[in-house]
Amino acid sequence: MGKRLNEEKRLKVVKEAMAGVKVGVLARMYDIHPETVRGWIRDHRDSIPPEEIPAADEHVQELQRLQEVEQRYQKAVKVLGEKELEIEILRELLKKKNPAYLKDLK
């Protein structure tokens, strides 16, 4: 962090943000704090005409795809953690000599 970007690069970051790239992704990509990016957006949002905002080109589409993959990965990690917890609980039940669930069956 603490990297300084010239005005041209700041405008590029703002344009990418206005094109739909998330602030967090831009911050990681340019190694700057997300709040810095948000400040630049506030400062430059009105000075950029709509025709200068890039369309969803390959770079922006790739970043959006990366965001979707990261979200799916986080969801998969969460589900995996839940399944591992369930397996551990079932293993503990199998170790018991008189599990509680067998008492209900009698």
What does this molecule look like?
- With 106 residues, the chain is mainly alpha-helical.
- The protein has two domains: 54 residues; 38 residues.
- Helix content is 72%, strand content 0%.
- It is built from five helices and no strands.
- α1 packs across α3 and α2 packs across α3.
- The longest helix has 38 residues.
- It is elongated.
- It starts with 6 loop residues before the first helix and ends with a helix.
- The mean pLDDT is 82.
- It holds the Pfam family HTH_28.
- Keywords: Coiled coil.
- This is Transposase.
Structural class determined from secondary elements: mainly alpha
Number of helices: 5
Tell me the domain tally.
2
Strand content: under 5%
Helix content: over 70%
- Net shape: elongated
Cα-atom Rg, whole angstroms? 24 Å
Number of strands: 0
Protein name: Transposase
InterPro entries: Homeodomain-like_sf, InsJ-like_HTH
Keywords: Coiled coil
Domain Insertion element IS150 protein InsJ-like helix-turn-helix: 9-43
List the helices and strands and how they pair.
Elements: H1 7-19, H2 23-30, H3 34-44, H4 58-95, H5 100-105
Helix pairs in contact: 1-3, 2-3
Q: Which features characterize this protein?
A:
106 residues, Transposase, coiled coil
Summarize the structure.
With 106 residues, the protein is mainly alpha-helical.
